[in-house]
Amino acid sequence: MAGRWRIASTAATVAFLLAVLVAVLLVARTSGKSDDPDSGLGVSPGLARFAEADRGDAPSIAGPVVSGSGRASISHPGSVVVVNVWQSTCGPCRGEADELEAAARATREEAVFVGLDVVDQRSAAQAFLRTSRSSYAHIFDPDAQQLLKFNGVLPVQAIPSTAVIDKQGRVAARIIGPVSARTLTELVAEAAATS
């Protein structure tokens, strides 16, 4: 009888602990939810446009290029700049690569595109770029130091993300999540017109 009690007691304890764990996870998942779709990123996912009066200065970023030969930098050369943050293991990043390339080609007279590959292995990033056939420069940022300069605009944990910088070096728009060529083309036109 004592052996059965121990087994039943152990099973009951495991069931109880499992129920507590599920409850804790549900509370953690739903806590802090409100009408704001923040998702715990510190910024809302999706597209955010900034009025000219509300635009903050974008940082200058620089680093070695993913290809391994040379460096790239962005110090806002008087044209619209699009910075796309990606990683080779990111599925949505792979999905948006063709859209980014289409937008870069469509807006090549108005904008400079730069990729920012973060927390990645160089060989994996190089393989990603070979398959995506990207025509613009990509900065290799394995420790996310360049991304951290976008504090408050592009959160480190939100990959992919994109910033559109106007001709005066201010962040005109940001997208948390995958982008479309159409949206980027519109954002570049807006940033070029308001600068």
List the helices and strands and how they pair.
Elements (H helix, E strand, L loop, with lengths): L1 H29 L15 E4 L11 E4 L6 E4 L5 E7 L4 H16 L4 E8 L3 H11 L4 E5 L3 H4 L12 E5 L5 E6 L4 H14 L1
Parallel strand pairs: 4-5, 5-6
Antiparallel strand pairs: 1-8, 2-3, 4-7, 7-8
Helix pairs in contact: 2-5
CATH arch. level architecture of the largest domain: 3-Layer(aba) Sandwich
User: What would the average pLDDT be, to the nearest integer?
Assistant: 84
CATH class of the largest domain reads Alpha Beta
Which term fits the overall shape? globular
CATH superfamily of the largest domain: Glutaredoxin
Binned, the helix content reads 25-40%
Q: Which stretches of 5+ consecutive residues score pLDDT under 50?
A: 18-40
| Distance separating the two termini | 83 Å
Strand order of the largest sheet: 1-8-7-4-5-6
Total discrete domains: 2
In terms of structural class, how would the helical and strand content be classed? Answer: alpha/beta
Strand coverage percent: 15-25%
Order of helices and strands: HEEEEHEHEHEEH
The main β sheet shows up as: 6 strands, mixed
Count of discrete alpha- or pi-helical segments spanning 4 or more residues: 5
GO molecular function, one term: isomerase activity
Protein name: Thiol-disulfide isomerase or thioredoxin
Keywords: Cytochrome c-type biogenesis, Disulfide bond, Isomerase, Redox-active center, Signal-anchor, Transmembrane
Pfam families: Redoxin (PF08534)
